[in-house]
Amino acid sequence: MTFSRRRPLLVLPAVAVLAAAGCSSSDATATVAVPSPPAKEAAACAALDRLLPDTVAGQKRHDPTPNSPLTARWGDGDAEIVLRCGIPRPEEMSDPTLPGIGVGGVDWTVQKRDQGPRFISQYTDPYVEILTGTRYTNDASLLQAFATPVAKAIPKTV
User: 63, 75 in Cβ contact below 8 A?
Assistant: First the structure.
C-alpha cells in the first residue's frame, strides 16, 4: 500500500516539469476555447465537423483539447489553422472598414492580427471563425478548403 501511495507523488513531479516547460501553440494538445452555442447551432457545427478536410494548406488535422465538434485544428506554429464554430457574433462584424472576401459561395470578414489573419463567416448562423498563423498573413487561399463544408453545413441568413 505504501508503494501505491507514493506512486502518484512520483508522477506529479514529472507533470510539473512538463508544465514548467510550457505548452505552446505548436503542441498537438493545444487548448482552444470551445464556444457554447444554442443546440440548433451546435448541431450545424457538428455537421460541419464531419465535413471538414483532413488536410488544409498542406497541414494535417490534429484537433485541440478539449475534443469538441465545435473546434478543429491543422498545423502548428506559424502554419497553425484553428476553426471554431458557433462563436457569438463578433463586435468587429459591425466595422464597415474591415475587408471581406468571398470564396466558394461563403463570405468572410478579414481581420488582420499580429498572429495571423482571422476570418469570420458572414451571413451565416452559426458564425464560423478561422484563426491562422503568420504564414497566412497575405494568403486567404486556405479558405478554399472550407468553402464546400461551410456552404453545405452552415445555414445562410440572407
Answer: no
**Which tens digits make up the pLDDT trace of 87-120?**
999 998 888 899 999 999 999 999 999 999 999 9
String of DSSP letters for 122-151: SSBSSEEEEEE-GGGTT--GGGHHHHHHHH
The DSSP letter of residue 53 is -
Grid cell in block for residue 56? 488544409
Q: Specify whether the CB–CB gap between 20 and 12 falls below 8 A.
A: no
pTM, whole model, 2 decimals?
0.81
Domains of the chain, residue spans: 25-153
Cβ-contact 136, 145 below 8 angstroms: no
Region for 22 from its dihedrals, namely left if φ exceeds 0, alpha if ψ lies in -120 to 50, beta otherwise: left
